[in-house]
Write a structure and sequence with these properties.
The chain is mainly alpha-helical. It is 70% helix and 0% strand. The N and C termini lie far apart (46 Å).
């Protein structure tokens, strides 16, 4: 279990404090981890997805360089 502590300075707006809290939450990647655990992915599927993502990133990088 992860506890997020966000300190709010005096005079700081609520919107800014919420933005800080959301950013910390995103950095901990709790939600992504939760979504991944909702459905079982076979190890072979995981490796295949990883390779496909790497190929996609490589294509985009090469496209960007042109």
């Amino acid at each position: 279990m992860v506890v997020l502590i966000t300190t709010v300075r005096e005079g700081e707006s609520i919107e800014k404090a919420l933005k800080k809290c959301k950013k910390k939450f995103d950095k901990t990647r709790i939600l992504k981890e939760f979504r991944e655990k909702q459905q079982y992915i076979k190890p072979s599927e995981g490796r295949r997805n990883k390779i496909l993502k790497a190929i996609y990133r490589e294509r985009m990088r090469l496209k960007k360089e042109e």
